[in-house]
């Protein structure tokens, strides 16, 4: 695997659609999802075959990702399932998309405002030159 930039995130791995799920947080989502896929992490995910990355939220700080992980672990299963299905109703594996081998299989985020919102923000000077 190539050396990649750390990607802090809270994530959900699943064994299959509507199967066993695992919630975790990591400082490097690409590496961690690869490890789950390959069964390189001993314990729950390897035992239950949780190698399909079905949901994640990126964070700037690891402490925030850990707080979110702990909160999600207290949720009931129906809420966790709904969280996954809001953007990934087919429970598609997101790892190939993360590493650039496939297009993003998820539904667009209804809160991102789309291209029109992006262009308006750009025109209004809300987005700086990068």
Automatic annotation (TrEMBL):
Annotated GIY-YIG domain residues: 6-82
Domain of life assignment: Bacteria
CDD domains, sorted: GIY-YIG_unchar_3
Entry-linked Pfam families: GIY-YIG
InterPro entries assigned to the protein according to its UniProt record, in alphabetical order: GIY-YIG_endonuc (IPR000305), GIY-YIG_endonuc_sf (IPR035901), UPF0213_domain (IPR050190)
Family according to the record: Belongs to the UPF0213 family.
Protein's UniProt name: GIY-YIG domain-containing protein
Originating species: Brevundimonas kwangchunensis
Taxonomic path: Bacteria, Pseudomonadati, Pseudomonadota, Alphaproteobacteria, Caulobacterales
């Amino acid at each position: 695997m190539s050396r990649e930039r750390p990607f802090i995130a809270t994530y959900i791995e699943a064994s299959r659609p509507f199967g066993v799920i695992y919630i975790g947080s990591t400082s490097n989502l690409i590496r961690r999802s690869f490890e789950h896929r390959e069964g390189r992490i001993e314990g729950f995910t390897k035992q239950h075959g949780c190698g399909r990355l079905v949901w994640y939220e990126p964070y700037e700080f690891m402490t925030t990702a850990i707080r979110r992980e702990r909160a999600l672990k207290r949720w009931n299963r129906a809420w966790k399932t709904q969280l996954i299905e809001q953007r990934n109703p087919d429970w598609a594996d997101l790892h190939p998309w993360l590493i650039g081998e496939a297009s993003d299989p998820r539904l667009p985020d209804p809160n991102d405002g789309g291209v029109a919102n992006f262009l308006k923000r750009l025109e209004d000077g809300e987005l700086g030159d990068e």
